[in-house]
Task: inverse folding
């Protein structure tokens, strides 16, 4: 018999994948360059969907774990939110407390993932520029990148949750990793150079197992080609053509590789907010699926937020320290949410009040 958790998880995944496929195969079937207006509308849609889900958790969060009585509630609370103090004689009050804590933790993790994702937009833009991807194809690459990210995040989050349940000291490792990355950001150069595509580990690995066609071929990920005088030329099967992967597919692989790197920050950060893998997964996925629209919305203006990088540094140090001290200091989801919102607000206000000075040409 399928458990309530698995059933709810399947419904959630089916809903998200269904929306993405509808977007990819119907709404955005024809590749085009996304305007700021279109990106803004879709960003608003995804953010609204994320907060609607927060509302669902606020009123019905117990459905995720199939809580039906006080015994179920105490078991789930001890596993994922042991700091909550439940009255054994007040099931409805305890249930309400658990739902509200779950919803606030979800919103905190969602906003945290969104904040970390903004900085990662620069890396994505750098990948597109390095490969010379046409702006018309940005959508296609990001769509497949998001589908791959859902699979990767599922693996990382639920494997990580299982490890945390068995080895509590892993939270300390997560904390050290976040503190290290927070300090590292302070000493990173402001401008990043172009990616060395030819020598990147992802390209070297692909070239060992696949033939790589050296040029884009429309919006195709694969093309039949053969070598003529040391250069690849498109050729049919009858002409001796063999399947090759195009730079567009290599770009998708790069995006997935980048998401793995991003996950080393975002997933430990989310576990600092909640130990519930479902809360972490829901917040991560709903933040990621809206990343495509946010990419087009912020790619042109993200550099205006000059204090974003220091803000991310502060957040990484805060949540890293929270994990390192979790045995001694308990910071609940409400305070975590307030900290995240405060840092974001201060970064935005400082960026508006003290904009980056344009260098005279």
Result:
């Amino acid at each position: 018999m399928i458990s309530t958790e698995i059933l709810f998880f399947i419904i959630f995944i089916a809903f998200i994948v269904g929306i993405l496929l509808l977007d990819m195969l119907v709404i955005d079937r024809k590749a085009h360059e996304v305007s700021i207006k279109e990106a803004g509308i879709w960003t608003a849609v995804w953010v609204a969907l994320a907060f609607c889900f927060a509302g669902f958790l606020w009123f019905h969060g117990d459905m995720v774990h199939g809580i039906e009585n006080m015994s179920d509630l105490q078991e789930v609370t001890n596993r994922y939110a042991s700091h909550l103090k439940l009255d054994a004689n007040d099931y409805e009050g305890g249930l309400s407390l658990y739902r509200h804590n779950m919803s606030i933790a979800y919103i905190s993790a969602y906003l945290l993932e969104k904040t970390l994702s903004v900085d990662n937009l620069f890396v994505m833009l750098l990948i597109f520029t390095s490969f010379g991807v046409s702006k018309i194809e940005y959508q296609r690459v990001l769509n497949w990148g998001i589908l791959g990210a859902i699979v990767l995040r599922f693996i990382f989050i639920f494997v990580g949750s299982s490890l945390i349940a068995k080895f509590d000291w892993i939270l300390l490792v997560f904390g050290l990793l976040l503190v290290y990355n927070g300090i590292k950001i302070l000493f990173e150069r402001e401008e990043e150079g172009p990616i060395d595509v030819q020598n990147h580990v992802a390209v070297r690995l692909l070239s060992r197992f696949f033939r790589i066609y050296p040029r884009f071929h429309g919006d195709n990920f694969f093309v039949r080609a053969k070598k003529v005088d040391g250069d690849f030329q498109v050729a049919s099967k009858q002409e001796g053509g063999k399947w090759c992967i195009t730079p567009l597919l290599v770009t998708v692989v790069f995006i997935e590789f980048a998401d793995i790197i991003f996950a080393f920050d975002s997933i430990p950060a989310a576990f600092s907010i909640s130990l519930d893998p479902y809360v972490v997964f829901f917040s991560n996925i709903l933040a990621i699926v809206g990343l495509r629209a946010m990419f087009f919305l912020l790619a042109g203006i993200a550099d205006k937020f000059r204090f974003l990088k220091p803000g991310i540094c502060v957040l990484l140090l805060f949540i890293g320290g929270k994990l390192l001290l979790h045995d001694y200091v308990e910071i609940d989801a409400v305070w975590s949410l307030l900290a995240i919102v405060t840092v974001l607000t201060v970064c935005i206000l400082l960026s508006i009040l003290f904009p980056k000075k344009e260098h005279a040409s």
The mean pLDDT is 82.
